[in-house]
Fold each of these.
Amino acid sequence: MSEASVIQSRIDTTSDDYQQNLAEMQALWDEVQQEMGKVPTIGGQRYVDRHRSRGKMLVRERVEALIDPNTALLELSPLAGWGTQDPIGVGTFNGIGVIEGVECGIAGSDMTVRGGAGNPTTWNKQKRFFQIVRENRLPLILLNESAGADLPRQADIFVYGGEQFRDITQLSKMGIPSICVAFGPNTAGGAYIPGMSDYTVFVKERGTAYLGGPPLVKMAINEDVDEETLGGAEMHSRTSGLSDYLAKDEMDGLRIARQIVRHLEWKKLGPGPTALPDDPLYDPAELLGCAMANVRIPFDIKEIHARILDGSRFEEFKPLYGEKLVCGWGSICGFPIGILGNNGILFSEEASKGAQFIQLCNKLNIPLLFMHNITGFMVGSKAEQGGIIRNGAKLVNAVSNSTVPHLNLMVGASYGAGNYGMAGKSYNPRFVFTWPNHRIAVMGPEPLAGVMDIIARNAAAGRGQEVDEKALEERRTALEAQIEYESLALFSTGRLWDDGIIHPADTRTVLGLALSAIHSNEIKGATEYGVWRH
């Protein structure tokens, strides 16, 4: 590979255009931040006060006390459930934090939300979290205190809810340890979480675990029994053997969890950072104004490279061919990375170039970062005759069979098959992070409504009927509004299509954390691909 060049930014951050776009992007982030602000107290202040009156910490306070001081914490899917009937955050914390110098997956239930009871979105959020823990080989910390399933919604939870128990035991088989700290009740199926964990810590006079609580025991076998005798921390530590450590209080429980992580002597399997981790030449704070708030307006993807890559260095691959797909190598926080970023629609040349670049990164065992700002593949007779399907399939083939870790960064639109060609959510990327301007759908609102308009007119003509222009315009307007709403970054993150909306200025830090977590597992590229047409 040739020597990397330093990117020269062409953005004038003092210009009116930049400042106007910056203000629009800031407004989008303010909306996200407002929703984020609802999460820690989503159960309501009354429930927070009740929790604290019992001498208990909130879940995020426990996490902050658990991780190493002055280290970054990456919360995953904090706005899961947005726009659904489920509360924002869905009553659980998931994230990656550093404990005793080791990146760990951390999950904790939020007792201020329906007593920590899980709803269907909770289980989907947990399922994605366990996938991240497994694929990146992260020790798992479970800060448990939950009433189990939200019983009135059991029909949407029960059948698939058992996957989490299977996941924990499979992690153990793979050599990925799990540590459960019981701060409160672990009821019914939830009792199996400490049961399946490699290490268990019960907080004295707080942590409990039982398959059936005192009322159920009374009903089932007519036995009168108190909580401590049935499933208290002392009983499980001295009698049943479910508890490995008895903590005197919550802080002691967190101390013991840190102690367990320390004695794991965890070793990463990846090579780790091998490049110079110097800061970019340009201020990452400028990223908020680099991408366009209006995704219909193009921008140069390399302006983002210049503000996230070490030393703003980028070795571009095939710069004169397939210019709408920018490919090349750089490093983030010392971790080598191959980047594919959109500077427009995908033509045959871009698809072919991307497939070749993916193969090269697999040969070099280098993770891939896909930066989405894509309206899709080119359409029309010229594109079809030029082999857009053949070459698009080649790119999808390479994406599908690539085995180096993939990361997605959604910095604009991600429409249609362009999402697939750029290794979107359905292609199992290790992480997907979005900016607040992100839009995702089969196509943009106006084109989609326009297509449906044409179909409706053709159908009417086929039936020999006149078009009701007013009704058609009303349907078109309603459809545009629907697709616009369903394309929003908030809508996407609420349905777990990504792992969280991040502030653009935090992108380098977030990607650095994700890459460090990825290197806990081995980085190994593919040597074989499916058949493709040349």
Note: The mean pLDDT is 91.
Amino acid sequence: MSTDAERDAGRADCPVLPCVPYTAISADRLGQDGQVGSSDTDVGESPRLTAALVVISTAQLMVVLDATIVTVALPSIQRALHFSTANLQWIITAYTLTFGGLLLLGGRLGDVFGRRRMFVFGLAVFSLASFVGGLATTATWLIAARAVQGIGGAIAAPTALALIGDTFPEGPARTRATGIYAAMSGAGGAVGLLLGGILTDYASWRWVLFVNAPIGALVVVAAPRVLKRSAPLGGKLDIPGAFLATAGMTAVVYGLVRAPSSGWANAITIMALAGGFVLLVAFAVTELRSDHPMLPPRLLADRNRTASYIVMLTLTASIFAVSFFLTLFLQIVRGYSPLKTGLAFLPFTLVIGATSQAVAKLMTRIRPQVFVIIGPLLSAIALLWLSRIDAQSTYGSHVLGPLIVLALGLGFSFVPLVLGATSGVQPADMGVASAVLNTAQQVGGTLGLAVLVTVAAAATRSALGSGVARSATATVHGYSVAFVVASGIAFAGFLVALAAIRTRDPIASTDSAAPLSS
């Protein structure tokens, strides 16, 4: 039977790689009046471009860090603010609900009102809410601050990703920027575990929230100086669509975060999931009839783009299990401290960063399709390898190897998936295209975690019921079964990539990226 800690953590959005970066391929808005227009402009050749990438990547890193850095501090927060076991999960859920529910709206706000403006606004809200949360003296105060953080993150994340496309010219420059951005985002989940452990062990749980304030302030001040102003692209907000999408996504995410502890058959869980599905169907119908749809149907008409969304969803659904189950395994079964657990994920972080950079360079000679097929397959193999753990397994013999292979698979996947998902998108749709991929990732991770926690709990109960396994052995058996299922989900992503994604050529070494054939 799962412990209270496991049930609480099961609701936590504990991604290894939340909010993977999305860049834009279309660069037809770049040109005169101070904007980047040189075909041979590259990352590192211009101090302004380098500063712009640092600002955008740092903002994304903050959003990524937030999911795991707070998770490590949950026991300390519970003791300090007298959270009940039932309410503790709302520290994570409040952020997850607002962030996941408002992503599509946040992306469209950037398209309509200007991306730099909304980027700065969203990041300011995120940072201020984080600081206020660090001052919390009651559970309600902290939960409210976390919800506001999610609102800021939902505005900042998709607009930041679209700003990459506004800043870097098409071709190798943008591909290399994507690799750097992917490495920064990939580092976030594992760095969050490490930094959260350091701050919690040596300072206070409050610093896992305070840390965002000075970094956010620097980015907010620097952004107008290094990012060119992105003029509003006009159009009207699709108010009915915005309401239906936000309500539908919020209901679905709420149902998914409830399912692991309350059960899939729980009346509230069923109502939330069913209600969310109905609202999203109504959203789809509304978008087909709207003159100014929030999610233009044309975005999903391209086969490569839709397939990239699906592959990203399957990858995040499978890898969310890694940080969740391995954190529990290392701390509860192997007795690791939070800091030591964070250090255990450090090789994973480094390999993802190095692989993303290498792939960005190799894509000038090798078709992106090759990487996006091999990546999910490697991920599936790594997760199957992880399923061999038992209560006596050690980090060096049973965890490190699979983690490195998984990092290779993810490093192979992210850059080509980002490029495939946003290739050919019209400038006016870039923010919402980024938000769709962000949403696919958020829903995929939340759905995967809900399913895998349920699978692990069922396998644990079965092992305990047989009378053969002790508590620790049965618990790790549950993790093992969950890894097998996660491997199957990643393999499904491999099959989708193999069957649906088609690319003609490597990324061109001139100013144009290789086109993606539908």
Note: The mean pLDDT is 81.
Amino acid sequence: MDNFNEQNIKVTFPNGEIKMYKKGITLEEIAKDVQKHYKAKIVAAKINNKIRELMNKIDDNCNIEFIDLTNIDGMRIYQRSLSFLLIYAVRKIIKDGNVIIHHSMGSGFYCEILGMDEVSEEILNKVENKMKEIVERDIPFKKLSLPLDQAMNIFEENGMEDKKKLFRYRRVSMINLYDLDGLKNYFYGYMVPSTGYLNLFRLIPHSQGFILQFPTTKEPTKLPEYIPLKKLSQVFLEYKNWGKIMKVDTVGALNDVISDQGIGGLIRISEALHEKKIAQIADKIAQKRDSIGIILIAGPSSSGKTTFAQRLAIQLRVNGMRPHAISIDDYFVDREFTPRDENGEYDFEALEAIDIKQFNEDLNRMLNGEIVEIPSFNFKLGKREYRGRKIKMDVNDVLIIEGIHGLNEKLTKDIPKENKFKIYISALTQLNLDDHNRIPTTDTRLIRRIVRDNQYRGISAEKTIELWPSVRRGEEKNIFPFQEEADVMFNSALVYELAVLKQYAEPLLFKIDNQSKYYSEAKRLIKFLDYFLGVSTEDVPKNSIIREFIGGSCFR
């Protein structure tokens, strides 16, 4: 590199290395210079702690941290850009064809083509080949900053009613659009520089539509094996039908309801659908009361498992059954026997952290009608204690056990399958920003957790965001691989909840300083919540799952 002069800039990398580049160089050019030091393709950068697209030029000295596909932010950028590529290809193959990107499904997005009851394999092949052709052509994604009224005219011309609704409530004068070979569209977030970056994808027929599959952060250089998730797919379909009942499938449609002062009715319908589903699950269990003695509930963080278990217990009582709650945590092994993770820290989420032998012995004895004293784990001392709590099961009694390993057959290995009923619960968000910008399920759960951690545990939003990747790794290892083992799945998402959570989460996120390592994530969530009109909590019932996070639950 040339020595420093006023035509050069100084770039400092995370490892302390300093390099000189010509003023006005793009981040993409610098990325090519350092790509060999990264495990996967670089798709964006952080400059002085703010995410920037590779198309940006650099004119001043700065600190640069590149983002590749092993990073969740990088994978989001890849997925978003790939979605635009798909939308463009469909438009080229089908005149006025419009893709609806519904929700995640394994390592991909489930998509449909508007107006098509089923997408044929022939159409999919044509679309996939067109996408590959566009990747080969390496067409740039051009960013345009347009006045709001001009952008709204573009949405009108392209039949994007969903985007018109979304921006009807946005407090902005300018909108950033992206242009791909003449097709203009809005996307919530950043893009790769050009289509040449998007060489890894696959289209797989699924239900009425198809899966747009992409790599994962764990294995960013190849496509994973496709494993159909039939039960999860069915839950999403059910929630999609709920959206039709409520006529709310996008944030713009939700904001319409809020602005028309109809949110009270929407809340009541949403909660009634939840109650109906819980009652149906209880009825299903009651039909097999002669054999089912144990109900196992599992799901990822902030799914609302505690409230769900309480509401299920009420519905079981309505069916003449008597539930007893048992916590798996009370069967932790004593602290000195707890396994450790790769960093030498106690791994409380490992299955081996539980005394499986004692747990199964106690369950079998209870199912046989014996009186069993249940332990209580003393977390301060790190030891199991017995404090006189005893359970004796009679006819129509049932055990409710909630915990992350509930669906793993190894947890209850000594209990016959016919004696168990497994329930998977998660907030599987079906509501999207618009037809092309989905709301990740993980974002809903993260916002729930940020609010709950602050409300009940005094933990800052910054700390919750810091711990979230570790939480997610635990879910990937201990929960998601077993979700299809469930007898039923319950979707705890509420179509109105982010409009309620917004007013709790925003002040907490604004506290994260721009010098924080987690500032870019806080900024992303703040921007996301800004799309929602806020809603008061007065119409939210005391037994709602959302009360588990915002407070005021009748179960606490």
Note: The two ends are 64 Å apart (CA to CA).
